[in-house]
Write a structure and sequence with these properties.
The protein is an alpha+beta fold. The chain has 13 helices and eight strands. The chain is globular and about 75 Å long.
C-alpha cells in the first residue's frame, strides 16, 4: 500500500473514532431492521464530511476518490461497525442518474439522495421473473405525457419505508425481451401503488410485494430512451454484483469468530480455538477470502485504468455470496446452543430483556437465514455461472 493510501486509511479511522459513537455502533450490531431516524443520524455525519457518496463524480457531490480509496473507505466503515446506509439510493439510482439522467432529473433527485432525506427502493423482481429478469411482465402503456403502469413487483426491500422507486417495466411487447424494457422512477405515494409486507425467514419485515393498478407516471421520470432500460439496468447490476462480494463484512466475521473461539469452551472442556477441525475450516475460509480480495483488487485496478468490471462482477458475486453463507454456517455451529433462542424482538428493539448469550450469538440464526438470499439477489448464482459460461466458453 502506498504512503498516500496509508494516510487516507488513517484519516478515515480518525473520523470513525470521533464520529462513530457507541450508540450508533449498537444500532448496527443489534438492530438489523434499521429505521429511518437511526439511519439519518449516521448519514448526516457522512454528508457533513462530504463522504456520503464516495463513488459519485465530484460535480454531483462525490468525493473524487480513486476506486482503491473507495474500497478502503468501505472496508474501514464495516470493520468499525458503522451502520450501513441504504444502498438503493446512493449506490444504485444515484450513479444511474449521474451517468444517464437529464439535468432536470439530477436537480430533482440527487440532493435528497445525497443528504439522505429521500429513500428509494428497487422495483426489479416479479413473480416468475427473478433470475430471468428480462422476462418481466409489468406493463407501462404510453398515454400522452404519462405511462400507465399495471403489474406486480416482489421481494422489494424497504418499499414500506421508501419515498421513491426505480423500476423496470415493459413498454414493447413484440420485440426480444431485453429490447422492450424501460427504466422509470415513481413516487411511492402515486395513486394505484399498493405495498404489502413479506415477513422473511429471519422473522423481520424488510421485503414487500408492490402492486400497480393504473399507476400514472410522467414521461419526464424515465431514465434515458424508451425500450433501452435493460442497458441502464445492466450498468446498475454490475455495480451491485461487485459490492455483493462483501469482503469487509466477511473479514469482520472471520475476526469475530476467532475472538469468540478464544473464550468459548467445547464439550470436552477445551477452548474452541484449540479444536483442529474448527481451526482448519476457518483458516480455509480466510484463504478463500484473501484470494477473493486479491481478485477484487485486480478488477478495481482494471476499472481505474478505464476498463469495466465486466464478467468479473459475476465471479466476485458468486464467490463472495457463497463464502458469506459458509461463514454464517460456521458461526451458527460455533455459538452452538446460544443460537437456539431465536427472538427477533431483540433485533427490532422491541424488548428491554437482556439477550441470552454473548452479543456475537444474538444475530447468528437471523444472519444465517437472511444470508441464504445472498446467492439469489442481484441475479442468482446459477444465472451468474451461465453469464460466465457464455463469455468464456461461447455457449
Amino acid at each position: 500500500m502506498t504512503e498516500e493510501l496509508t494516510k487516507f486509511r488513517q484519516e478515515v479511522r480518525t473520523f470513525l473514532t470521533r464520529e462513530l459513537t457507541p450508540d450508533l455502533k449498537a444500532i448496527a450490531e443489534l438492530n438489523f431492521s434499521q429505521n429511518r431516524a437511526d439511519n439519518a443520524r449516521w448519514h448526516s455525519k457522512l454528508f457533513e464530511a462530504g463522504w456520503a457518496a464516495p463513488s459519485w463524480p465530484v460535480e454531483f457531490g462525490g468525493t473524487g476518490w480513486s476506486l482503491e480509496e473507495q474500497r478502503i473507505f468501505s472496508e474501514e466503515l464495516t470493520l468499525a461497525g458503522a451502520p450501513m446506509l441504504m444502498p438503493f439510493a446512493l449506490g444504485m439510482i444515484g450513479p444511474v442518474l449521474c451517468a444517464f439522467g437529464t439535468d432536470e432529473q439530477r436537480e430533482q433527485h440527487l440532493p435528497g439522495i445525497l443528504d439522505g432525506t429521500v429513500w428509494w427502493c428497487q422495483g426489479y423482481s416479479e413473480p416468475g421473473s427473478g433470475s430471468d429478469l428480462a422476462s418481466l411482465k409489468t406493463r407501462a402503456i404510453r398515454e400522452g405525457g404519462d405511462y400507465l403502469i399495471n403489474g406486480q413487483k416482489i421481494w422489494t426491500t424497504n418499499a414500506h419505508r421508501s419515498d421513491w422507486m426505480f423500476a423496470l417495466v415493459r413498454t414493447d411487447f413484440d420485440s426480444k425481451p431485453q429490447q422492450g424494457i424501460t427504466f422509470l422512477m415513481l413516487p411511492m405515494s402515486t395513486p394505484g401503488v399498493e405495498v404489502k409486507p413479506i415477513f422473511s425467514i429471519d422473522g423481520l419485515h424488510h421485503l414487500n410485494e408492490v402492486y400497480f393498478t393504473n399507476a400514472r407516471v410522467p414521461v419526464s421520470q424515465r431514465i434515458g430512451e424508451e425500450n433501452k432500460g435493460w442497458s441502464y439496468a445492466k450498468y446498475l447490476l454490475g455495480h451491485e454484483r461487485t459490492a455483493i462480494a462483501n469482503i469487509p463484512a466477511n473479514r469482520m466475521l472471520i475476526d469475530n469468530l476467532r475472538r469468540f473461539a478464544e473464550t468459548a469452551a467445547t464439550g470436552d472442556g477445551c477452548l474452541l480455538s484449540e479444536n483442529t477441525v474448527f481451526r482448519n475450516r476457518l483458516d480455509q475460509l480466510e484463504i478463500e477470502l484473501d484470494a477473493l480480495d486479491w481478485n477484487q483488487s485486480l478488477v478495481l485496478a482494471a476499472m481505474e485504468s478505464g476498463g469495466s468490471a465486466g464478467d468479473a462482477a459475476s465471479m466476485l458475486k458468486i464467490v463472495g455470496s457463497e463464502l458469506q453463507q459458509k461463514l454464517e454456517e460456521l458461526r451458527v455451529e460455533a455459538v452452538a446452543y446460544y443460537a437456539l433462542p431465536f427472538d427477533t424482538r431483540q433485533l427490532r428493539s422491541e424488548t428491554n430483556e437482556t439477550a441470552y448469550g454473548p452479543d456475537f450469538s444474538l444475530r447468528a440464526v437471523s444472519d444465517y437465514n437472511f444470508g441464504r438470499a445472498s446467492s439469489i439477489y442481484g441475479g442468482s448464482n446459477e444465472i451468474q455461472r451461465n453469464v460466465l459460461a457464455k463469455s468464456m466458453l461461447g455457449f
